[in-house]
Amino acid sequence: MTDRAKKSNNLFDFATSELSQDAFFCWSLNWLAVKEDTEDPYYKYGKAMLDLFLGEHKKDIYKEVEVLKQFNRIDVLVLFKDNQDNQYALIIEDKTNTSEHNEQIENYKNQLNDALSKDENIGYKNLPGNQIYTAYVKTGIMYTDDLDMKNKVNTTINLDKLLKFLDLFYENSNQTISTIKSNIFLDYYKYLHGINDFQNEIIDNFKKNQYVENYESTNTEFGYKNIFQDPYAQYCFLKKIFGENDENQNFSESSKNDEIIFKSRIYSGSNKDGTKWTQYCFWEKQFETNILPQEKDEHESYALFWRIDNATMNKEIYPYLALRYYDKNINKYPPSPNNENNDKCRQNIFNKLQGYITENKIDENEFFLKKESRKGSVERNLLYIPIRNLDGISLTEISKVLHAINSKLTTYCKTEFENIK
After folding, report:
1. How many helices and strands (H and E) does the chain possess?
2. Residue 56: φ, ψ to 5°
3. Cα–Cα distances in angstroms (integers) from residue 159 to residues 33, 62, 373, in the given order
4. Of all residues in the chain, what percent carry a pLDDT higher than 90?
5. Phi (first) and psi of residue 306, to 5 degrees
6. How far apart (Å, rounded) are the C-alpha atoms in residues 49 and 62?
7. How confident is the model at residue 177 (pLDDT cuts 50, 70, 90)?
8. DSSP string spanning 48-91?
């Protein structure tokens, strides 16, 4: 238990899962079902939250509201009628630190009528598609895939938008329209503000061009001495250098070489020990697998990306930024002098990239350190930057150098590897 948790004993310092957040949204929305007085502060609060999740599809009046949790695997399902007794459904997909996968929301929407028809107690059947709304709510980091959800759902809600909404019902806010005094509300409100305050500290630290030295958060729950142990710091750093959804990095589809329509993106994952890494992928290409036995997928991806992560040396943690080339089968078919298809071999692509970087003296910038890849890895280092080498250098200057590298390599890849199948 942290010092902060001991002092405040905030429920949401312990209840950090998506299920806990689901429960908070259900509790908030359910005031529409249990309060009859439309002037009651809690009714106003529930209505305002439903308005928020519905966005431009909000209604003047909500009748017979029913809030269901984990109905047919949907995080939160809200069923309601308008003042003309038309029936509606709102599917809420709620995330904290993960992202939507496998077209979850679309599948939920397509399966909803069938699931509703099997429950005679609900009384909702054959809802038209335009009366089933969808909302994507994420209080964690909005990576590229999360930002793209705006094209898949009716409404997206991020941490900032949710906090601005909650401010309207917090008694000490300058914009209060009604006061909610429940400890459940107050705990959640303060918990989210704690996350927001910590993220603002990271941004302020970057503005000083200090990325490693002497950083320690004043927020005792997030007391990182190495700022890059936190995924938000990793994300913020990459976003400030490379931007989000850089349109200049988008590729067009080509039937000639099966190059996918690719949009540069930032995303995150975990190492085997549970520590976090974040990547900015700026080039990806699909090749036919005709140099391997046919597998389940007819294509395999090759990618270039910048990865920010942490290395451990003598029990000390050292953050780094590495430009890497990825191919999961790079070790299976090494180049051979006797192989007439040598140029098609996977490892040869990596070797060509290495040669291009050396010939063009890209790796001679003082930022870089020679760093061999781990033996047998499917991710190979092309460039390696200890973050300590960047301390005191502005993000603008770093961005200029790395963007130039990305541009050169992207052009080289699209030209050199165009006909590889």
Report:
1. 12, 10
2. -70, -5
3. 26, 26, 37
4. 54
5. -100, 130
6. 12
7. confident
8. HHHHHHHGGG--S--EEEEEEEEETTEEEEEEEE-TT--EEEEE
Q: How far apart are CA 392 and CA 337, in angstroms?
A: 47
Beta bridge partners of 268: 278
227-230: long-range contacts (C-beta < 8 A, 24 or more apart)? 227/202, 227/319, 228/308, 228/310, 228/319, 228/387, 229/275, 229/276, 229/310, 229/317, 229/319, 230/202, 230/276
Q: Token digits for 216?
A: 């320690």
pLDDT on residue 183: 94
Structure tokens at 230: 């936190």
Let me know the angle formed at the C-alpha of 281 by 280 and 286, rounded to the nearest 5 degrees: 170
Residues 6+ apart with CB under 8 A from 128: none
pLDDT digits (tens, 9 = 90+) for 25-66: 999 999 999 998 999 999 999 999 999 999 999 999 999 999
Sheet harboring 316-326: ordered strands across? 265-270, 276-288, 299-313, 316-326, 379-386
In sequence order, which residues have a C-beta less than 8 Å from that of residue 314 and are 6 or more positions away?
A: none
DSSP state of 222: G
Pairing of strands 74-81, 276-288: unpaired
The count of residues in the chain is 421
Residue 264 CA to residue 256 CA, distance in Å, equals: 21
Neighbours of 243 (CB within 10 A): 16
Residue 216, amino acid: E
Rounded to 10 deg, the angle between the 18-29 and 41-54 helix axes is: 120
Q: 10 Å Cβ neighbour count for 347? A: 17
Is the pTM for the entire model greater than 0.85? no
Tokens matching residue 87: 């029936």
Separation CA 24–CA 40 (nearest Å): 19
CA distance 266 to 178: 38
